[in-house]
Amino acid sequence: MDDGYSLKDDKKLLEAYSKGDNKAFETFYLRHKDGLYRFLIFISKEENVSVDIMQKTFLKLIEKKKDFLWRETVHPKRWLYRVAINFWKDELRKNRRKKEEDIQDIEDIQDNRYFEKDDTLINAVRESVSNLHLKYRLVVSLRYFGGLSIEEISRVLKIPQGTVKSRLNKAMLVLFDSLKKYKDIINL
Questions:
Q1: Structural domain of 179
Q2: CB 103 within 8 Å of CB 92
Q3: Distance of CA 58 to the CA centre of its chain
């Protein structure tokens, strides 16, 4: 898609949008919706929650339209994921109040219907990622499904880069261990 903007020009897209260029918003949305959706599916494990949070996140961007004129320090992709995470945390709190379940119980909800069409290995990887503890699942999802760098993850989650790296390392060890039973399919 040739939209007149380079892939690194998210700030320019939002600046153009803040000045009334709705096509710029559409380009930004199309550029980031799939990655954000994949990330939300992996952390929430529920399609309807993911879609709802994604809509709220982009609506928040629309509400903040004029704010991007003056914010040189705002990285649009980081901002998008940070807002989505905050909405997801709100959803967890709301669910906990409604159902009086703790966050761990919510994390254990499994809905594998999204993975039925995938082959065995992809299904196993996705299931293994979804079974990771929340702090590991977040960094893995942001890195590999959201496409964020270590630095971006650090800023989104407000944790040191070293913590991001150690969580990624620990998550990879857990994933490696959980996928050993598929060693005949892959080279482990």
A1: 115-188
A2: yes
A3: 13
Q: What is the pLDDT of residues 98-112, one digit of tens each?
A: 554 444 444 443 343
The gap from C-alpha 117 to its chain's centroid, in whole angstroms, comes to 22
Claim to verify: residue 88 and residue 23 sit in the same structural domain: yes
Q: Cα(105)–Cα(45) distance, rounded to whole angstroms?
A: 12
The tens digit of pLDDT for each residue in 109-125 reads 334 343 343 466 677 77
Look up residue 180 and give its two tokens.
Answer: 């050993």
pTM of the model: 0.60
| One domain for residues 92 and 133 | no
Is the separation of the CB atoms in 57 and 85 below 8 Å?
A: no
CB-based contact 129:141 (threshold 8 Å): yes
> Residue 69 corresponds to which amino acid?
L
Q: How far does Cα 27 stand from its chain's mean position?
A: 19
> Which element (helix H / strand E) includes 19?
none
Report the C-alpha gap between 21 and 57 in whole angstroms. Answer: 19
- Our count of domains for the chain comes to 2
